[in-house]
Write a structure and sequence with these properties.
- By secondary structure, the protein is an alpha/beta fold.
- The protein has 9 helices and 10 strands.
- The chain has helices at about 15-25, 45-55, 75-90, 105-110, 110-120, 165-170, 175-185, 215-225, 240-260, and strands spanning about 5, 30-35, 55-60, 95, 125-130, 135-140, 140-145, 160-165, 185-190, 230.
Length: about 260
């Protein structure tokens, strides 16, 4: 079992800092979030960081978030192609991707088949990540809005490879173990974090929420999961590098302590 660190976990520090933290704390790999940090967009720079720190790259996260809509252009399929090219260049087997937003109509129209075609043409696995309904409060109370097409739950679609993010599962009020069972052997990648019933995407240190991160890891260990577990937490409120490092270290220890097969 390999535990990686997502570079977004050290934001607002840089991609370079993420590699430094990962190596110093003892992570096994890094997931590169292609984002607004210019270094994260450069294949040569990412490769040099990996080699300098002797830190393998387990996955590339495509720039498909709201705040990365203009990274690598605005054409979605082109962004995924470039993500696959980066993954191949740095030795990663997985590209993590979100389902399209509902306003990306042309992109969403044939997304399922398009992902399969990309996997066939590139040899890279595109793990489609679970998202969540957007919740808004009105005079009639809270209501959910479907903002992803074909849907926020990738277990409902015939993707060959999928990913589970525990913070997203918390927002959706979904049981991640049940989702993992629905995905079966298609489950390829985990974003280890935590959350509550809040409508916010909290990305807490695992164990600080109530989504059941510990039992989820134990389930994975007993189910023969063969993918990577990547810590993806929010440390923006940390007041110092030392506090950020403590959160990153606690998350790594949590993963290693709970990813264990329980024997009678």
């Amino acid at each position: 079992m390999r535990v990686g660190l997502s570079t977004v976990s050290v934001y607002p520090e840089s991609t370079a800092h993420a590699f430094t933290y990962a190596a110093a704390i003892g992570y096994d790999a890094v997931e590169v979030m292609v984002g607004i940090d210019a270094l994260s967009q450069q294949v040569s720079a990412v490769k040099q960081l990996s080699e300098h720190h002797a830190m393998p790259i387990c996955a590339v996260h495509a720039p498909c978030l709201l705040f990365t809509q203009r990274v690598w252009g605005t054409e979605p399929w082109g962004k995924l192609q470039r993500s696959a090219e980066m993954a191949e260049a740095v030795g990663a087997e997985v590209v993590v991707v979100h389902p399209p937003f509902r306003w990306q109509r042309e992109y969403a129209r044939d997304f399922v088949n398009g992902i399969a075609a990309l996997e066939n043409s590139t040899g890279i696995r595109f793990a489609v990540e679970n998202m969540y309904p957007w919740r808004a409060t009105s005079r009639r109370g809270r209501r959910g809005m479907e903002m992803y097409v074909p849907g926020w739950d990738p277990s409902a679609e015939p993707y060959a490879n999928t990913a589970i993010d525990l913070s997203h599962a918390a927002i959706a009020h979904d049981d991640p173990i049940a989702m993992a069972r629905r995905m079966g052997t298609r489950l390829r990648h985990i974003h280890l974090t935590d959350g509550t019933a809040s409508a916010k995407d909290e990305h807490l240190v695992p164990g600080r929420g109530d989504v059941g991160a510990a039992s989820f890891l134990r389930h994975l260990a007993g189910s023969g999961f063969e993918g990577d577990i990547v810590v993806e937490i929010n440390t923006r409120r940390c007041g110092s590098k030392e506090e950020r490092e403590r959160d990153l270290r606690e998350s790594l220890e949590f993963a290693r302590n709970h990813y264990a097969v329980v024997t009678p």
